[in-house]
Amino acid sequence: MRVLGIETSCDETAVAVICERQGLLAHHLYSQSALHSEYGGVVPELASRDHIRKLGPLVQSAMHTAGLSLQDDVDAVAYTSGPGLMGALMVGAGLGRSLAFALNKPAVAVHHMEAHLLAPLLEDAAPEYPYVALLVSGGHTLLVEVRSVAQYTVLGESIDDAVGEAFDKVAQMLGLGYPGGPQIQRLARQGNPDRFNFPRPMVNRAGLDFSFSGLKTHVLNTLKGLSNPNDQARADVARAFEDAVVDTLRIKSARAIEHTGARTLVVAGGVGANQKLRRQLAHRLGAQDVRVIFPAPEFCTDNAAMVAQLGLLRLQGAGNEPLRIRVQPRWSLDEL
Ligand code: KG4
Ligand code: ZN
């Protein structure tokens, strides 16, 4: 069985083809980040319009790479139907559902975060169940216990800003571009770790929820209070912010591992690319015999391979979508 996967929930247009026997046959992605960079974040209307421009050609190029024809070789179409930006989702869902209808094949509407949770299964060194997933992206901050496909418990999530969003907003305050995470990481390397000590939000409270808006305000107030806001001072702030975020994520992840008894932590989402976060998690949790898995960067950030894979898993467990186009901009994993 071969499944075409389509992802358009935010600012990446992505198409992939996966085969039950041969694995991933094509995996194409177009990132809109340059389009949004001057605004410091994703502009929904621009995102939708760009998906419309790019998605059709991307489907064609993915089919070309896979050496397959849509008519003859695709057995189902999977598309992200939520959560995400309404207009952006509609582009992928509209094309995906219509293609499946035209081809007279099953369509599978996929939950974006569920696809992220299972993305590590795309790789050879797949994690064993149960595992804890730390999903940290521009739109989400989640700790989830994964017991098997479709068996998830959300352990904690952000009650305000997503952690990637906090990186992006703090980057803006520091006069850096979008996406902010990589730029803060770079600037923080020059920062003095002893100059500022920012709060680690909610680590002294029970539970596994996160909050980053207070930390963001703390950064703003610190910047306003600087008598000499030179490059070194900005680097010191970037360093203190990154240290506070990384510590917070590490403390809560360790707590989730302890709470569930799982021995594996999977880190997914764009913030998972952060070098300090990777080092700290691998070092501190590794010392407790916890296996820490970072999916390859291409499967960590938004992509269609994870969507095609989830479509395939769904079809293997049976389940065709009815003939309707449905998107869910807000959709908790607990509702699956
Ligand atoms: O998963 P992703 O590519 O897209 C979605 O949000 O769905 O995540 C993007 C987020 C952005 O907020 C970006 O600033 C952040 O991931 N990010 C990082 C790093 N690289 C990307 N945050 C911290 N450190 C990084 N090295
Ligand atoms: Zn995502």
Can you give a write-up of this model?
With 336 residues, the chain is an alpha/beta fold. 44% of the residues lie in helices and 19% in strands. The chain contains twelve helices and ten strands. The protein has helices spanning 33-37, 44-66, 70-73, 86-103, 112-118, 163-173, 180-188, 213-224, 231-260, 275-286, 297-300, 305-316, and strands spanning 2-7, 12-19, 23-31, 76-82, 107-111, 131-136, 141-148, 151-157, 264-268, 291-293. The strands form two sheets. A five-stranded mixed beta sheet has the order 3-2-1-4-5, sandwiched between helices. β4, α4 (86-103) and β5 form a beta-alpha-beta unit. The longest helix has 30 residues, at 231-260. The radius of gyration is 20 Å and the shape is globular. The mean pLDDT is 94. Zinc ion (ZN) binds next to α5.
What does this entry show, briefly?
By secondary structure, the chain is an alpha/beta fold. It has helices at 33-37, 44-66, 70-73, 86-103, 112-118, 163-173, 180-188, 213-224, 231-260, 275-286, 297-300, 305-316; strands at 2-7, 12-19, 23-31, 76-82, 107-111, 131-136, 141-148, 151-157, 264-268, 291-293.
